[in-house]
Design the sequence.
């Protein structure tokens, strides 16, 4: 079915809403299983199959559907059960062996309170507390993740039933491109990829440039070693990202949009491609959309597993089928980007914020968050914490509340030592610095960084020198090799840290690290090289005692580093 | 060395040709260039590596030179230019896995399995690739992915060895994520 006018869309939308309401408040049973990369790893596909078979065997009539990831990775696979007089109950950790018992329970209208995470209702149901009161969800503010885990990510109808594409309609029929840019500027949404550059300013200069064609690109590369927010977002709500990109195209007055997805995110690629296909089929993408004369095309491109391709100019070269290596700027990409044309490049999460901004206005968005960081942020925390997963919180939430509240604090037997921030591009924070908040600026002074929102908690069993070496080695491995300071500086720094780990440290290693780091920071060509030594400098600042112990006492306080390996290694190679 | 290996392996190129015919139809040269990486991904997914013959098929289909494709294959970490072992294993070395002990695990698997410089076990049953990025299933850290879809989490030396032995023997691995 192709929609040809606004009325067509509105009719389709109201039908979709009716269908949704009939499903969610009707007499039928609905069993939803979260299918995403993280739940598949825990066997959610098997849970789904077993559920279908069990229902069949019991001759129990129910609609079994897939939904996306809801962020609670620690609870996967999750199953949501609703029926007549049975509000939706979310059950966690439903592996195949639990399926028969679960089916047996709801078949008789019973619940299993021990397995339940909560009920999607305002009041408790048979001893199960409302989902929103669960400590993991209580502190969250879900704008981007509002539909995640609720709708079927492979259904455009579900998305529209839950208010999707209304921003696209509003822009097409009620707004000018300049007004869209203005709303984004008023919202003051800053780039979610790490740098925090205001998207509105980028869009405005992109709009002003008079060279055609122009391109709009979403950066869904996500190659950092501790972030998975973009892929979960696409896996759970691909249309939201797509709508954001489409609005970007509209604002710039171009019909060319791209989404560049990291090649290893297989499910995200599949679901985004499916979303694009559905949008074309419905006539929301393509030529002369809904009779407005406006055209928009969005293409999916995939990368090949190189961290550097997260850098803007490298990504564009990769998109053009070349080796992803950054180039010197200027010209900036809004002047010369993809195919040497003006290009606006934003992070996936940034685009996902746009539909809400267009629908509700920039002022609505700007009222959330802190003075300089507006809106919400997707955050992932890993390491030995009680509940590992993805949360969406309002900017300005204290890290302590985040870690010890939402994430449930440290797992039993682990003691908090530090929090690595900003992926591989910043330093860690100590326990006494956890009163800093989630926003773009507050952590900077302490040597941390919000980055793309990926944090790693580490405990006493992790050695600061060893961790610094790991982060440095990552940067060394991923250095694209184009500019000398990064290509030679990162191995040099790794080598110094290796000497410390192997008990071969010399006097003056720390000043040497600082001097070498300074070279890399000041002389590297791209943003990634310029921050490559930050984790090492941060570790040195946060845990000076450990570096001292390695250098002056020849011991590793955490007992991790092979302090006596160095002599052996060096004597074999003959180089002392 | 790669050349001798390549010449010994018989590759059925027809499935790749079919995918290219179906999904890779650029409107112009610009789009053809944009599609190269995606086509390489398809070959990698199909064969577990990108043989020279497959590169040639892609090059011919998109009208680019095979040299350019080789340049991409050797830049991007996802691609292999030599055949993998029977089972391809990705060992995650993301930061979450690191803090849960993946570094030691990598050292141990290297010793225990006598991995060659290309990450292959001597019997050719496995090729082990350490992933610098993140597999994105951090709740299972440290985690390995075997043959694309099967994840094995909360690994330690013994568990990983047991998983690998089970797969060698063709037995199912009962306990999927190692949670006690």
Sequence:
């Amino acid at each position: 079915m192709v929609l040809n006018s606004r009325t067509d869309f509105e009719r389709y939308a109201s039908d979709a809403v009716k269908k949704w309401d009939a499903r969610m408040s009707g007499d039928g049973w609905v069993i939803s299983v979260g299918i995403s990369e993280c739940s598949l790893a825990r066997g959610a596909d098997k849970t789904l199959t077993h559920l279908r078979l069990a229902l069949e065997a019991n001759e129990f009539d129910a609609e079994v559907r897939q939904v996306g990831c809801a962020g609670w990775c620690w609870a996967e696979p999750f199953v949501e059960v609703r029926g007549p007089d049975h509000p939706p109950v979310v059950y966690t950790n439903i592996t195949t062996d639990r399926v028969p018992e679960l089916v047996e329970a709801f078949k008789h209208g019973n619940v299993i309170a021990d397995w339940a995470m909560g009920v999607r209702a305002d009041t408790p149901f048979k001893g199960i507390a409302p989902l929103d009161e669960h400590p993991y969800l209580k502190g969250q503010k879900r704008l981007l993740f509002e539909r995640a885990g609720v709708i079927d990510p492979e259904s455009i109808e579900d998305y529209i039933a839950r208010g999707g594409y209304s921003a696209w309609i509003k822009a097409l029929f009620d707004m000018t491109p300049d007004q869209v840019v203005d709303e984004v500027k008023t919202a003051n949404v800053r780039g979610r990829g790490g740098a925090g550059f205001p998207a509105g300013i980028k869009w405005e200069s992109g709009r002003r440039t008079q060279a055609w064609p122009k391109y709009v690109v979403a950066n869904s590369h996500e190659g950092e070693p501790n972030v998975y927010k973009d892929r979960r977002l696409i896996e759970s709500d691909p249309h939201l990202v797509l709508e954001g990109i489409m609005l970007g195209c509209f604002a710039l007055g171009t019909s060319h949009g791209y989404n560049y997805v990291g090649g290893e995110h297989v499910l995200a690629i599949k679901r985004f491609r499916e979303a694009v296909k559905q949008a074309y089929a419905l006539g929301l993408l393509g030529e002369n959309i809904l009779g407005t004369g406006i055209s928009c095309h969005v293409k999916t491109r995939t990368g090949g597993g190189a961290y550097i391709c997260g850098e803007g100019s490298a990504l564009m070269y990769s998109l053009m089928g070349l080796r992803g290596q950054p180039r010197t700027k200027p010209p900036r990409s809004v002047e010369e980007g993809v195919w040497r044309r003006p290009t606006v490049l934003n992070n996936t999460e940034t685009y996902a914020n746009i539909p809400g901004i267009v629908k509700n206005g920039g002022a609505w968005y700007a009222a959330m968050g802190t003075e300089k960081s507006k809106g919400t942020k997707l955050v992932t925390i890993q390491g030995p914490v009680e509940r590992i997963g993805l949360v969406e919180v309002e900017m300005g939430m204290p890290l302590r509340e985040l870690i010890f509240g939402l994430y449930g604090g440290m797992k039993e037997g682990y003691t908090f030592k530090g929090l690595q921030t900003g992926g591989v591009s910043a330093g860690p924070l100590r326990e006494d610095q956890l009163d800093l908040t989630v926003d773009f600026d507050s952590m900077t002074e302490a040597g941390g960084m919000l980055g793309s929102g990926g944090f790693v908690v580490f405990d006493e069993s992790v050695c600061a020198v060893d961790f610094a070496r790991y982060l440095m080695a990552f940067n060394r491995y991923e250095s694209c090799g184009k500019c000398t300071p990064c290509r030679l500086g990162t191995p040099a720094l790794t080598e110094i840290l290796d000497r410390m780990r192997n008990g071969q440290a010399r006097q003056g290693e720390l000043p040497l690290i600082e001097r070498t780091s300074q070279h890399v920071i000041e002389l590297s060509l791209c943003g990634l090289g310029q921050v490559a030594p930050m984790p090492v400098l941060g570790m040195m600042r946060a845990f000076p005692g450990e570096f001292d112990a390695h250098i002056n006492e020849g011991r590793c306080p955490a007992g991790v580093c092979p302090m006596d390996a160095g002599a052996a290694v060096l004597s074999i190679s003959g180089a002392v | 060395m790669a050349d001798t290996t390549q010449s010994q392996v018989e590759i059925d190129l027809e499935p790749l040709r079919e995918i290219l015919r179906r999904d890779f139809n650029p409107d112009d040269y610009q789009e053809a260039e944009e599609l190269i990486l995606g086509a390489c991904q398809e070959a990698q997914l199909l064969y577990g590596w990108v043989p020279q013959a497959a590169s040639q098929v892609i090059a011919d289909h998109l009208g680019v030179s095979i040299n350019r494709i080789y340049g991409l294959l050797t830049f991007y970490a996802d691609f292999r230019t030599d055949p993998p072992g029977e089972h391809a294993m990705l060992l995650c070395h993301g930061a979450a896995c690191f803090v849960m002990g993946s570094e030691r695990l990598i050292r141990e698997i290297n010793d225990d399995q006598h991995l060659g410089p290309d990450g292959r076990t001597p019997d050719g049953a496995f090729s082990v690739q350490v992933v610098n990025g993140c597999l994105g299933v951090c709740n299972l850290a440290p985690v390995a992915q075997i043959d694309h879809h099967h994840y094995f989490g909360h690994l330690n030396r013994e568990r990983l060895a047991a998983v690998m032995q089970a797969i060698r023997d063709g037995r199912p691995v009962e306990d999927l994520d190692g949670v006690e």
